[in-house]
Amino acid sequence: MNRTISILCTGHLPAHVADEATASGKVRLDVIPFIDITHVDSYDMTAHISELAAKDLNAVFTSSNGVEAVAAMLGGKDTKWKIFCLGNKTKNTVYQYFDKNKILSECDNAQQLADMLIGLRVKDVTFFCGDSRMDILPHALAGAGVKVEELVVYNTTETPHVISTGYDGVLFFSPSAVRSFFSVNTLGADAVLFAIGDTTAAEIMRYSKAKIIISPSPSKEEMINDVVNYFFIK
Fold this sequence. Notes:
Layout: E1 5-9, H1 15-22, E2 27-31, E3 35-39, H2 43-52, E4 58-61, H3 64-74, E5 82-86, H4 89-97, E6 103-107, H5 110-119, E7 124-130, H6 136-143, E8 147-158, E9 169-172, H7 175-182, E10 192-195, H8 198-205, E11 211-214, H9 220-233
Parallel strand pairs: 1-2, 1-9, 4-5, 4-7, 5-6, 7-8, 9-10, 10-11
Antiparallel strand pairs: 3-8
């Protein structure tokens, strides 16, 4: 393909990833976030997490937003936690704020994470999540008799934008962004949609019959590679 392709990214993208995507001049990339993330800012939550820091608990993170919110409330305080998380961005964010040795395991998606915790016969976990979190992990754990303390540490607000530009491809990083996008937009069947995981892809299917390419790992860098591979290498 010799022409320049036009891609819409519906969430924040690291500057170096965006630069790499457009370096060849073959990709035009528009980054328009369709959700806004805010950390829970309350005395009670901060005090509770500060108390938890001294406890030997199984901490579960399925998003980098949750890690950042908790780290902000800890204020640099060390913890005795055993950490279980998703890989790539979530794991890398954990590395920024916690001792790497505290990460006992990482998985590609919430179902794998739940299955792993159940397989390890973990009796209880503290799940740090957002107000729009998916049900997969807590439901699977509860169904297996694992006690789940669920702490909502960040909130997701949908920020829809009407898109008038035609795009060759659209990148979605979360089900919330999918809902926000399709609340005011439609896409033709010839569009190619890129999803960061199975749950995001499932949400896309509720609104569109367009082709969906699911990233093999929950990584924005990997998704950009998917775009390049699809349009220029396939």
